[in-house]
Amino acid sequence: MKLKNWILSLLLITISCNKDKETITISGVWKLSKIVYGQVPGSFIPDENNTHSYRFNTNSRFERTEIKKGNIIKEEGTYTITDTHSFYENKNAKISKLIKLTYDNPELVFFNCGSTETNKQLILLKADHSLENNSALACDGNGYLYSKEE
């Protein structure tokens, strides 16, 4: 009987420890779920004719698909995942990782308040399993929140 209780206790400890080590997988499709205003309080849900999404592949490549007034625009590039970046000096418990996107097209320009070069973006992988691009918020631009498609 004591052996059964000991095995059961060991099993419960193992299961609870595995939950602490839960990893967030970046690969897959992340759709824009909310746009947060930078100048005034509030946010809105994007409509399907003016939105964008990211597809992260397991080979460190990504594709950004933008829909503008029904027209589809695709851009590709590479991504790296890191724990730190100079734009986010203090470690924030709500941020799990930082994802730096580098687009293949060097002429591509993003409004990012100087957080990265203009053909790059910095996206936060948050502890709540969402992505956030808030680089432009510091300059009164919009912030973007993404949810992973299941």
Describe the structure.
- With 150 residues, the chain is mainly beta.
- The protein has a single domain, classed as Lipocalin (Beta Barrel), CATH 2.40.128.280.
- Helices cover 13% and strands 42% of the residues.
- The protein is built from one helix and nine strands.
- The chain has one helix at 2-20, and strands spanning 28-36, 43-44, 50-56, 61-68, 71-82, 95-103, 120-126, 131-133, 143-148.
- An eight-stranded antiparallel beta barrel has the order 1-3-4-5-6-7-8-9.
- It is globular.
- The protein starts with a helix and ends with a strand.
Describe what is shown at a glance.
By secondary structure, the protein is mainly beta. It has 1 helix and 9 strands.
Please give the structural blueprint:
Layout: H1 2-20, E1 28-36, E2 43-44, E3 50-56, E4 61-68, E5 71-82, E6 95-103, E7 120-126, E8 131-133, E9 143-148
Antiparallel strand pairs: 1-2, 1-3, 1-9, 3-4, 4-5, 5-6, 6-7, 7-8, 8-9
Descriptors:
mainly beta, Lipocalin, 1 helix, 9 strands, 13% helix
Order of helices and strands: HEEEEEEEEE
CATH fold field value = Lipocalin
What is the assembly state of the chains in this entry? single chain
Q: CATH top level?
A: Mainly Beta
Helix vs. strand class: mainly beta
Percent in helix: 10-25%
Strand content: 35-45%
Q: In terms of per-residue confidence, which ranges show pLDDT below 50 for 5 or more consecutive residues?
A: 5-21
| Strand arrangement in the largest pleated sheet | 1-3-4-5-6-7-8-9
**Biggest sheet, in brief?**
8 strands, antiparallel, barrel
